[in-house]
Amino acid sequence: MTQPTAAIVTPRASAVQGFFRELTRSKSGFVGLIIVLLIVGMSAIGPLVVDPSNPTDVNAIWGRPSAAHWLGTDGAGKDTFKQIVLGGRTVVFVGFAAAAITTVIAVVIGSLAAYFRGRFDAVMLQITDVVMTIPQIVLLAVMGAFFRLDSPLWLALLIGALSWPILMRSIRAQVLSLKEREFVEAARLLDLGTFRVVFGEIVPNMASYILINFIIAVTNAIYALVGLYLLGLAPLAGSNWGIMINDAWMKGAMFQNDALPYILSPVAMIVLLQLGLIMLTRTLEEILNPRLRDK
Asked: How far apart are CA 95 and CA 98, in angstroms?
């Protein structure tokens, strides 16, 4: 008679299961995760299932919500609901891509500057001081004037390349503390090499800190992107939530009573996405920070 085989659970799989169990146990964290997944999913899958054709209809300008147009129409008679579904991809892509660029630059430069110290550290600190003293929206406006920002990738590169200094200083402070620990001294004694000591021993011990700051960077990147569109500093071609807000502002939608759904729809989507990310960040802090978790 054969004995039942017990499921083999590795320590890493057990840690992942425990992480998601803690995440779903927190109501705010779980709600935040659901909001983020729904908006990201809608932005990714929506353009594949919704007809992208959204023609102008002069007979339906600033139309109210109806069975044909669930969220009404804009100043050109285009369906608002379609614009919401089709317009999230750029905002979500730029937000996450810019945050990834910001995080990678900050982690690499901050870790190496703290590990090597000396002239490299001093130069990096001087560069961050210069970048941080210039208001980011002004810097984005100047850069936008020199570069043609007609691609979401270019927008992500621009925002990501200008947003790393603050996080770089935080990462540098973390590495300055970690580099004096015993496990780093042991890695040095084993002569593992600088690359492996920094990125194989020190950086993995900051994984939770980096993850939380990555999500915060997503929210900041989305704010920067919407600000660029609202001020007209990025090309207003195509359709996304930032362009919708700019379009509502330029066409005086706030003076049209029936245009309220068109104004509020993109704002509500951005607020919901930001709220979900913030709720998720707070819960991750409680889960991953032992001092907060024990309270």
From this structure: 5
pLDDT tens-digit readout, 195-225: 999 999 999 989 888 998 999 999 999 998 8
What b/e string do you get for 18-52 counting C-beta neighbours within 10 Å, with b at 16 or more?
A: eeeebbeebeebbebbebbeebbebbeebbeebee
Answer for the pair 212, 285: CB distance below 8 angstroms, yes or no: yes
Residues 6+ apart with CB under 8 A from 114: 121, 171, 172, 173, 174, 175, 176, 179
pLDDT digits (tens, 9 = 90+) for 148-160: 777 889 889 989 9
| CA R_g for the chain | 23
User: For residue 117, which phi and psi values (nearest 5 degrees)?
Assistant: 50, -150
In DSSP terms, 79 is beta-bridged to 73
CA separation for the pair 156, 99 (Å, rounded) = 8
> The tokens of 1 are what?
């008679």
Q: Is 172 helix (H, G, I), strand (E, B) or coil?
A: helix
- Residues 53, 40: contact at Cβ < 8 Å? no
Identify whether the C-beta of residue 111 lies closer than 8 Å to the C-beta of residue 210: no
- Structure letter (DSSP) for residue 197: I
d(CA 102, CA 159): 8
Q: Please, what is the end-to-end C-alpha distance for the chain in angstroms?
A: 50
pTM over 0.90: no
- Whether 241 contacts 266, CB under 8 Å: yes
Contact yes or no for 99/160 (Cβ under 8 A): yes
CA nearest to 263, candidates 80, 39, 52, 68: 80
